[in-house]
Write a structure and sequence with these properties.
Helix content is 39%, strand content 21%. The strands form five sheets. It has a seven-stranded mixed β-sheet, sandwiched between helices. Strands 9-8-7-10-11-19 form a six-stranded mixed β-sheet, sandwiched between helices. The protein has 485 residues and is α/β, with parallel strands linked by helices. The chain binds nicotinamide-adenine-dinucleotide (NAD).
């Protein structure tokens, strides 16, 4: 076992949980055992909430300009420790080192945004009546929780950590039990950056801890990122306990390719979007709709896909179960009459026989009713459908219950605008395969890709992590008596 068994992180210390139940953490790259992660109990969560509650008194009263100093230092520590963080990310998640470095770079960008929060949460003041001022202030909520998925062991935790904490909250993080190592290193770096003990805590676990978070009376808000199935459970349970909740779910993102799209650029974008992070991105291209004759572009997509080699420039999928599930989807599509143009099944990487790799897969002549057309596959697979018109393509996109991202590839501005206006997704790309908005713009989908109001990052997150205090003030008696008196 490469690392010591993991512990929770409570009040600035790594502490053994009460439970003896653990899960093994295995590297998808080669099947090696990395560590064991504890499945904590409600009592462990109580300890973390109590530590966070005590820390909140002082942290919430610390001026925001002082609070963000921690994040200036944290940003430099992320840069300094980039190589080590990327290696941990890669070995626990299975993505390539290049993708892991990009993930840490994104953590840095998220942290930079948090350091700018003092400029954004200045509140408002106005003389609303003679001698009477109204003023608004963004006030932290208290103890908040962040529950995260396996596909970005560092980035998704950092969607919430810098903003929620810089805005004055204290946090309980529940890492994915599949990739629990990175969060521990994040905790150490936050401490080194000067974050007071108790402001950031980690409680490892699975369903039991997620349910306990949703039920805990000491937790004010819950942010969740993961599958739609669990997002619905968490949203329903947390809000039924009168908590604020923002729950991001799964996705099925459509790329609509017009015959006038630039073939080389389009093919590169489609191939990179469907295969990046082994297709395990909620922003991955999963379905492509070719409008009219785009055969030349599909040929080029296949050429690009063949350049993507498992174990070299393509990482592993998270587990054997995932690999089997993805391959089952491909086989089922083939049996239903789709054509497998590039086949990523039964891949073995020499020297890493226990790694869980799926090669890039291009499936053509998919029909809208097939499961590869409608369900989230979460592997390096693109399902190509064909239509004669833009409206038919939009009808397919609009029929999806999800609504994270959609993209159009075209040289025609009118067509692009037509699709931006009509696609039913929160994030739209024009000639961009992974249309992730970068800070200060916020990240968040629509429909069953997100439950709750607002987005999880950028300016929009300020509303989620704070509550607004409104004060109405009159000091000078000569202002007189009016209806506000
Ligand atoms: P998941 O839903 O299985 O797990 C997410 C978290 O929920 C984990 O911490 C896990 O421990 C917990 N969990 C799992 N089952 C639970 C249950 N029954 N009750 C309570 N808690 C439970 O998701 P995953 O497999 O880790 O991640 C992949 C999914 O996340 C994909 O669907 C992907 O699209 C989605 N995702 C979405 C976004 C987004 O921004 N919308 C971003 C990243 C990932």
């Amino acid at each position: 076992m490469k690392y010591d068994p993991l512990k929770n992180y409570i009040n600035g210390e790594f502490v053994a949980p009460r439970s003896i139940r653990t899960l093994k953490v295995v590297s998808p790259l080669d099947g090696n055992l990395l560590t064991e992660v504890p499945m904590s109990t409600k009592e462990d969560l109580n300890d973390a909430v109590e530590a966070a509650r005590i820390a909140f008194h002082k942290w919430s009263k610390t001026p925001i300009k002082e609070r963000v100093q921690v994040f200036f230092r944290y940003k430099f520590l992320l840069e300094k420790n980039m190589k080590e963080l990327a290696e941990i990310c890669s070995e626990e998640n299975g993505k390539t080192i290049g993708e892991s470095v990009a993930e840490i770079e994104k953590c840095i960008e998220l942290t930079e945004f948090a350091t700018s929060l003092p400029q954004l949460v200045t509140g408002e003041v106005l003389e609303v009546s003679k001698g009477v001022e109204c003023r608004t202030e963004h006030v932290p909520l208290g103890v908040v929780a962040s529950i995260v998925p396996f596909n970005f062991p560092s980035m998704v935790p950092n969607w919430t950590i810098p903003n929620a904490i810089a805005l004055g909250n204290c946090m309980i993080m529940k890492p994915s039990e599949k990739v629990p190592i990175s969060c521990g290193r994040i905790a150490e770096l936050l401490k080194e950056a000067g974050l007071p003990d108790g402001v950031f805590n980690i409680v490892h676990g699975d369903v039991e801890i997620v349910e306990a978070i949703c039920d805990h009376p000491g937790i004010e808000a819950v942010s969740f990122v993961g599958s739609t199935k669990v997002a619905k459970i968490v949203y329903q349970r947390a809000t039924s306990n009168y908590k604020r909740c923002l729950a991001l779910g799964g996705a099925k993102n459509h790329l609509m390719v017009m015959p006038d799209a630039i073939p080389g650029m389009t093919a590169q974008n489609v191939a990179a979007s469907m295969s990046g992070c082994a297709g395990q991105r909620c922003m991955a291209a999963s379905a492509m709709i070719g409008v009219g004759n785009v055969d030349n572009i599909i040929d080029k997509i296949c050429d690009e896909a063949r350049k993507i080699i498992p174990g070299e420039n393509l990482g592993a999928v998270i587990s054997k179960e995932s690999k089997d599930r993805i391959e089952k989807y491909i086989t089922e599509a083939e049996q239903q009459g789709a054509k497998i143009l590039v086949d990523g099944r039964n891949v073995k990487v020499t020297g890493k026989e226990e790694g869980t790799y799926v090669g890039p897969t291009v499936i053509d002549f998919v029909t809208p009713g097939m499961s590869v057309a409608t369900e989230e596959i979460f592997g390096p697979v693109i399902s190509i459908m064909r239509t004669n018109t833009v409206d038919e393509a939009l009808a397919i996109e609009n029929a999806s219950p999800y609504g994270n991202a959609a993209s159009v590839f075209t040289q025609n501005g009118g067509v692009a605008r037509y699709i931006i206006d009509r696609a039913s997704a929160g994030m739209i790309g024009v000639n961009v395969g992974v249309p992730v908005p970068r800070e200060p713009f916020s990240f968040g989908g629509w429909n069953e890709s997100k439950f709750g109001v607002g987005d999880i990052t950028g300016k929009s997150s300020i509303e989620f992590w704070t509550k607004l205090k409104k004060s109405t003030v009159k000091w000078n008696p000569e202002a007189g008596v009016n209806w506000m008196s």
